[in-house]
Amino acid sequence: MSGCTCPGVRRALALLALLGSLGGRGCWGSDPGSGELEGQGSRHPRGSWEAALRHKRSWVWNQFFVLEEYTGNEPLYVGKLHSDVDGGDGKVKYVLSGEGAASIFTIDENTGDIHATKRLDREAQAYYTLQAQAVDRVTNQPVEPRSEFVVKVQDINDNEPKFLDGPYMAGVPEMSPLGTMVVQVAATDADDPTYGNSARVIYSIIHGQPYFSVEPRTGIIRTALPNMDRETRDQYVLVIQAKDMVGQMGGLSGTTSVTVTLTDVNDNPPRFTHKNYQNTVLESLPVHSVVARVKAADADVGPNAEMDYRLMDGDYLGLFNISTDEETQEGVIVLLKPLDFETKSSFSLRIEATNRNIDSNFLSVGPFSDLAVVKLTVEDVNEPPVFSTPLLKMVVSEDARMGTSIGRVSAHDPDSTNSGIRYSIDRNTDLERFFNVDALSGVISTAKPLDREANSVHNLTLLAIESREYRRKGIALITVLDINDNAPVFAIDYETLLCENAMPGQLIQTISAVDKDEPPSGHRFYFSLASPVAGNLNFTLRDNKDNTASILTKRGGFRRREQPVYRLPVLIVDSGSPALSSTNTLALRVCDCDADGVAMSCGAVAYTATGLSTGALLAILGCILTLLIMVLLIVTMRGRRKTPLILEEERDIRENIVRYDDEGGGEEDTEAFDMVALRNLNAMHARRDVTPDTPTFFRYPPPQQQATILITARQTVNLKKKRTGMASKGFGASCLPRTPAFQKCDSVRFDTDF
Predict the structure, then answer these.
(1) Which end of the chain has a smaller Cβ tally under 10 Å, C or N?
(2) Rounded distance, CA 153 to CA 163, Å?
(3) Origin, by domain of life (predicted)?
(4) What string of DSSP letters covers 580-633?
(5) Which among 464, 385, 472, 461 is positioned nearest to 429, based on CA atoms?
(6) Cis bond upstream, residue 578 (ω within 30)
(7) pTM greater than the 0.85 cutoff
């Protein structure tokens, strides 16, 4: 059996099959026993050509080839299979299996002809492995072992080169020398590189000459011109072509674009557009304000265009400064000190601009710096007054009298007009109005007494006023000098405890003092006992000479029962001039202390009965409660009796009123008798048998005297009436007797109207 890749005379195919069977040679062979393929001219494993003749081959065929991309209308003939078992009587049937069997490849079961029914693409699949077998048509039993063979798809040039990484972006420094590598491009051809020239690519440049070139075999792009200037043109777009078939006619091609950007180098020095600049500035411009901006042009970009500015030597150094604005690369001129038109009205600033990053390869283009002059003209403005001293420091004594002059503030008008100045104090800084300032002379004086202890430093804001719009503020610090006007006192409120078991000479308290004054040489206090107790027998004071004093006992045996608290007056004298003193009382409480001197209880001791048992104490408590209950009962019973007695008394008063129709003497009757007696009678309105709730400070007259008082009053009134010839408007008295003849009166009432 034999096969061929193209149609031919069947007799030639049969001849090839015969030669293959006789000589054991062919395109491919298969051992009938094993069913494996053999290569053309292959030897038996034993290395003898004769060994191959011992076994009769049942069939042989060639390796089949099929051209890809077949475009015919009929199925493409691949080859023919034939077995020598096939006698041509139709008893043998050929069967094909494997990759693409029935779907791509078909076989004529009678003749063994193989056809491809679809277009094949080598780039999709380069070969197919199939199995062939001859079987009995009736029994369907194999008459030959199954054997494999390969159908290889033969390549044609049907794929153009492709730039898988395109389009490309590349950069190269400007001014680069000729032949500087820019970038390498690569194209891929999907055709078979081992068969023909279908995959052999050649590169060429279609667009981008004469600036760039490309190496045909490597695809490396290089500069074709030297010293290309970015400032003239900074970007180029190249078109690169890759063509297979080694660039021959009929080859396929593909293209890609390469964008080449010229990167900047510092090949351009900075240059000012003008050599002289004019600017105007007000003399009132605040410090640290921008005066002017200048810029030197640089055709470069990025770090190559960065520059530094500086002021050249001149009398303006220290008055102005220049720095670089990093965003705009401008030189910013800033004012460092106030301008004064009257002092200088114009300035000429010499400014240098220098590249910050200089490339040594281009020093020949330099120098990379430039100079310019900026002329500043100062314009005059009406300025507020200026203090001769912005901060005044003054001192005044604490005992200065009202109106005492402390100092003088001075200001002037800096303008050429030299206007007059008026002065005042910002009262927000002197709310209590301790000071005044003369509006014309600027003399500062006291307006009320000062107290250093209340405020030792006064911070005044002074105003120098030229007009309503123009004024200036100044500061005056007035320090109040201290005088000795405060006496020393105890530093704290001492709580001194004295143990009953204290020994003579024992230290019981250390005292110190404070003084609101602040003498320049510091405080020095002197301690002593006040003269009334200087010679007492209980305590003594020792001045420690360090502004403290010690209180010591003179004796022992202190007893709380005898005296729970001792009060010791201490005299403290300061060292001022004149010296001041004060007497401070130190209270010493006598306490019961333990052996370590720790106070257990202090103050007076209550006397308590001793020797009473618990039962006795309970009995006493019961008696006290019984007495309290009895008192409450008595009070309650007497409260119930008060109401009817008072009603009875009121009824008696109404029934025992005695009226007299005698006329009185008016005001003269008042002088005719003693009114004290009447006032005493008015005070006796309460009943004798009812105890008053509150004590009184006079005694009631005895019952016998009450009637006498009444008669005496009556006689006195009548006598006055006879003397004056005037009648009293009315006089009446009533007595509520319990017995006849006024021996007892519960109350006496006088009704008089003089």
Answers:
(1) C
(2) 26
(3) Eukaryota
(4) -EEEEEEEEEEEEE-TTS-EEEES-------S--HHHHHHHHHHHHHHHHHHHH
(5) 461
(6) yes
(7) no
